[in-house]
Amino acid sequence: MATTKAATNREIKVLNRYSIKQDCPEKGLHKGDVVLHIRNDKGAEYYTTLRRNKAHSCSCPAGEHSRKCYHVSVLVSKENARIEARLAAKKVIPMVAPTVASQEIGERGTLTRSQGFSLKLVS
């Protein structure tokens, strides 16, 4: 997965990313939460949970004592960048229709003939 350097020049590697699709109260997870299994540059592995409407959490020693750890701040910005990139990729550029000279129906003929119908692009 991806490797990120923290503000303290510590390296964080995301091993797995889990997107929670439905509430799971017995595990304290809710729909929309993102759980990241990470490894720091010292080889220690933790789970960081990013929540939409609640406080984020981390299983590292700082996170377990209800302090904000650098894992959360780095991973929040990384997750926000991932979402912005995904939304930017979904934007569709509208096509501009070419200008066609208009004619009256009488000038083009009728559509009731036995010939096939075709369009011509006039530029």
Give the neighbour order of strands across the main sheet. Answer: 1-2-3-4-5
Number of strands: 5
Element-by-element helix/strand order = EEEEEHHH
| Terminal CA distance | 51 Å
Number of helical elements: 3
Unreliable stretches: none
Shape: elongated
Q: Based on helices, strands and strand pairing, what is the structural class? A: alpha+beta
User: How many strands, what sense, and barrel or not for the largest sheet?
Assistant: 5 strands, antiparallel
Task: Classify the beta-strand content into a percent band.
Answer: 15-25%
Helix content: 10-25%
Rg (C-alpha, Å): 28 Å
Compute the average pLDDT: 79
List the helices and strands and how they pair.
Elements: E1 3-5, E2 11-19, E3 34-40, E4 45-50, E5 57-58, H1 61-64, H2 70-90, H3 105-108
Antiparallel strand pairs: 1-2, 2-3, 3-4, 4-5
Provide a descriptive summary of the structure in words.
With 123 residues, the chain is an alpha+beta fold. The protein has a domain at 3-80. It has helices at residues 61-64, 70-90, 105-108, and strands at residues 3-5, 11-19, 34-40, 45-50, 57-58. β1 and β2 form a beta hairpin. The relative contact order is 0.13.
Give the structure's gist in a few sentences:
Helix content is 24%, strand content 22%. The protein has three helices and five strands, in the order E-E-E-E-E-H-H-H. It has a five-stranded antiparallel beta sheet with strand order 1-2-3-4-5.
